[in-house]
Design goal:
Helix content is 30%, strand content 23%. It contains 9 helices and 15 strands. The strands form 4 sheets. A 5-stranded mixed β-sheet has the order 5-1-6-15-7, with helices on both faces. Strands 11-10-12-9-13 form a 5-stranded mixed β-sheet, sandwiched between helices.
Length: 285
């Protein structure tokens, strides 16, 4: 995944009070693994007064798999694309999706060619000055994996003290391990494939990395059913965690409200979970 969303600015500007209260960020101790983020507001949202089947044009990055990409048939696909369509259906909006190069996403919003950016731009101060943001629909997190032969049943710093833990060098995940798992014997690798191969061969005791990347490796052919996830996913906004959200044209605040409503309904009905199961072979949380 090549563009992690920068959520620190957005959090201060938009979500500080209601959406992150259940997720502890790391302070002096590493955070515990978490359950699935709820994301919904504690209060039930109301659909704004919009005509049913209002036409809404969505645009998504064509090269941001697994969140958005152009499928083999040329049609838009991905976690974010399908969640956006599910939210549109729940909000009774008639949405169409176009995928285009990353560089053209914000330009499409600014020119009025598109109403909603499903993926692409970073959620930084510049972007949020030009567009509105929905509530989050996904969170980038961290995850441990171990060999099936391992007797480890938890991924706490105490449990992994003295253990060999692999991670991709010069990443935020590596810095997090250095900060909170210093008693572990941290081994760095050029990429997750190399770290996974070392885990498979028994050269290290665990691997830590991006949640989805670790899941895809564990479930993939290279792993050959050698390994399993250890514990739940870890969330730490000071390091690797980012929330993903949709961006709306600044002159269409009613669309942001409608999509927030639709996202809540899609999550409540189980549609979001079904979409995640389609694209993610193991529980992402």
């Amino acid at each position: 995944m090549r563009r992690n969303v920068n959520f620190s600015t957005a959090c201060r500007m938009f979500f500080g009070l209601v959406l992150l209260s259940s997720i502890a960020e790391a302070q002096d101790n590493p955070p515990a693994a978490r359950q699935a983020p709820l994301f919904r507001s504690p209060e039930e949202r109301v659909r704004p007064q919009l005509p049913d089947n209002l036409s809404v044009r969505l645009v998504a990055d064509e090269d941001f798999a697994p969140f958005s990409f152009r499928s083999r048939t040329g049609s838009p696909a991905g976690i974010s694309v399908e969640i956006a369509i599910a939210a549109c259906e729940q909000a009774r909006l008639a949405c169409t999706v176009e995928v285009r190069p990353f560089a053209g996403i914000m330009a499409a919003l600014a020119s009025g060619e598109a109403d909603v950016a499903v993926t692409g731009p970073r959620l930084d101060a510049k972007t949020l000055a030009a567009a509105r943001m929905t509530r989050p629909y996904f969170r980038l997190m961290g995850r441990f994996a171990v060999n099936n032969s391992s007797t480890l049943d938890a991924a706490s710093a105490a449990t992994l003290a003295g253990r060999r833990v692999g991670v991709v060098r010069d990443t935020l995940h590596a810095r997090w391990l250095a900060a909170y798992y210093a008693p572990s014997r941290i081994a760095t690798y050029d990429d997750l494939a190399a770290a996974g191969a070392a885990l498979k061969a028994g050269k290290i005791d665990a691997v830590f990395g991006d949640n989805l990347q670790v899941i895809y490796w564990v479930a993939g052919e290279a792993a050959a059913d050698c390994c399993r996830l250890l514990g739940g996913a870890y969330s730490d906004f000071d390091y690797f965690s980012r929330n993903l959200a949709f961006l709306i044209r600044s002159d269409r605040p009613e669309l942001a409200q409608a999509l927030d409503y639709g996202l809540d309904k899609a999550q409540a009905t189980g549609a979001t979970a079904r979409i995640l199961r389609t694209y993610v072979p193991l529980d992402p949380w």
